[in-house]
Design brief:
The chain has 78 residues and is mainly alpha-helical. The chain is 38% helix and 6% strand.
Length: 78
């Protein structure tokens, strides 16, 4: 099955590079270019490497704005 359709890289190729010592998506990219074009395969490469998906970050709660910043659109310096 293809992992990276941009460069035609298969799961077996990624697993072979991992067996040869590539243990991060960046090292896989250096070995075969997978993940360097559209980036759509990076999460799949992470999963194949046993790293799972990147944790999702929760958005920060909006900060309270003063009346002056609400009018001007500028944030407080604090």
């Amino acid at each position: 099955m293809f992992v990276c359709s941009c460069f035609g890289i298969t799961e077996q190729q990624v697993e072979r590079h991992a067996a040869d010592g590539a243990c991060t998506p960046r090292q896989i990219a250096s070995a075969c270019k997978a993940g360097t074009d559209c980036g759509g395969c990076v999460r799949r490469i992470q999963a194949l490497l046993g790293r799972g998906e990147s944790p999702r970050r929760e958005p920060l709660a909006p900060r309270a704005r003063s009346a002056a910043t609400a009018v001007t659109g500028l944030r407080d310096a604090a």
